[in-house]
Amino acid sequence: MSSRRRRSLERATLSDVARSAGCSLMSASRALSQPERVSDALRERVMAAVKALGYVPHTAARNLASARSNLIAVIIPSLSNAVFVDTVEAIQRVLMPAGYELMIGVSHYHPEEDERLLRAYLAHQPAGLLVTGFERSDAAREVLGSYTSPIVTLMELSDADEEYCVGFSQLEAGAAMTRKLLERGYRNIAFAAAQLDPRTLQRAEGYRQVMRGASRYDAALELLTPQVSSIGLGAELLDRLLAQHPEIDAIFFNNDDLALGALFRARQLNLAVPERLAVAGFNDLPAAAWMHPALTTVRTTRGEIGKLAGQMLLSLMRGESPPQRRIDVGFEVVMRESA
Amino acid sequence: MSSRRRRSLERATLSDVARSAGCSLMSASRALSQPERVSDALRERVMAAVKALGYVPHTAARNLASARSNLIAVIIPSLSNAVFVDTVEAIQRVLMPAGYELMIGVSHYHPEEDERLLRAYLAHQPAGLLVTGFERSDAAREVLGSYTSPIVTLMELSDADEEYCVGFSQLEAGAAMTRKLLERGYRNIAFAAAQLDPRTLQRAEGYRQVMRGASRYDAALELLTPQVSSIGLGAELLDRLLAQHPEIDAIFFNNDDLALGALFRARQLNLAVPERLAVAGFNDLPAAAWMHPALTTVRTTRGEIGKLAGQMLLSLMRGESPPQRRIDVGFEVVMRESA
DNA sequence: CTGAAAGCGCTTACAG
DNA sequence: CTGAAAGCGCTTACAG
Q: Where is each HTH lacI-type domain found (chains A, B) (predicted)?
């Protein structure tokens, strides 16, 4: 009668089901959650009532009452980047069959967004949390501090070795590609990056260390821009780098989108790749191998990262302690035609 | 004392906050949700307690008590397809500032997944629902039937005109590109598609109608495969089509990934595009314009779709009736070099 | 401006 | 195998 009652008219509750099945609320509850602990007759009556009323259980109420949750929050910086899509898909493939539901939050590489999402998602009491990388604002860190369920970090490896994480050394990957480029004889190797998220900067640091080690480091050959990565931006970065430093003989791009753009631009400019200019990328997206020349890049196993992180979280949520706190999935430098 | 109590030790509740602030539970509640209706002194004490205890409100409890929800469920078939990523991003941009949170579900083009997601998400009592297209299983339709909050359908337009939807006529888009190809003088135009979701089939139907109208329809030139779209598959479809029907002078691909693959393959085979074979795609992904030859394709405004659908949902959730139930955002045939 | 009580829809020990 | 009661964390009318 009160306006609160009105909702019951709109959607059936468990107590409607119980009434319709002629049993108590809690028998109805049990028939649904532990069907084997209930008589066949009761179970059938309840199921019939569920069907007749179109009953859909109220997850939030269930979670609240049971002090459990089937929600997993995963926070990634971007969905436009295929790397994270692959990771999320893999996570979903292991967590969904286990009865969990994913809440996917996209921070767009903004620390404030990251914090906002963390706050919003933790307010849902997720059973587990998957975050990308270790860097976050103090406020975000504080929010995380009050969270008591398992957390697994994606993409990066903790130095501290006291956090659960699945990833690879971004610095090492940046270093490895730079080393290869030097081995191939390139001397004036530029590094071009956008977005400037922590992983990009770690790769840049890897590049820097190797270039310094070879006494070839020149800060002017580093082009870092906070803009969003895109094919068009890659083309633009190529233009800028070559205009200012025609001596450049190779460019190592922070990701494949940028490198693809550079390859397209080189073609427009009739620049011979890799003879005049070598181009390398990062991630090995599907298009990389198909380009002409085929793109030299670093292959990352994000599917593996998602899968292993999902499994680690699963075992943590079961209260087990996983064999390893930190899983290094590695990476692979793939030399193709462009460098 | 009981094991139930233990949770309170782990995370602060509103009643902990109230105790710490020396006020009633409901004053604390009010201080948080309607800060202006509370004295400055009280507000400050409550805020201090919140901070000190690291209190995070329990969204599920709030939603349950208030019979409201800040959750919006959106169900899309894929995240690997940039089209849906763009759509979701746009939706998020309008709904998030309004205080809503997105639950993103990916059905992988499987009706059973679609149904499962619908069931799982509706169990969270979302304030609104965004779904992709109209086709779904009977079971899914039944689940939807019990849902009483607003629903807006993305991508397609309803014939019935009794549903809320934002999209464009996929059939018309397929027809328009086919017409253009005929105008350009191509005669043996093949249609190649993967995934075979409803929208793909509608585009195929558009192609069919136009080809029939021109008395050029040949069922053998339609290559439909349920496989997942990818660049590699596009290359493969080109091979198959040309092997069986060398007379083909143009291929209209169901999406850009496929068309890109065909362009790459054509280059490997030294096939002149468009002289020997014209290639057209669908969606106008970023790479399309950069290819060589640049890809002829159909530009779809998924950002617009997401934005308008989000706005429509917003006004429906406010109880308003939006000016239009059905918004046609159209499409644009973009003729470039490949056809 | 502030508070006591009831209730959101469900589950969990505890009895029988 | 089944049920009455209490409680999950919060908000909502209703009083004062």
A: 12-66
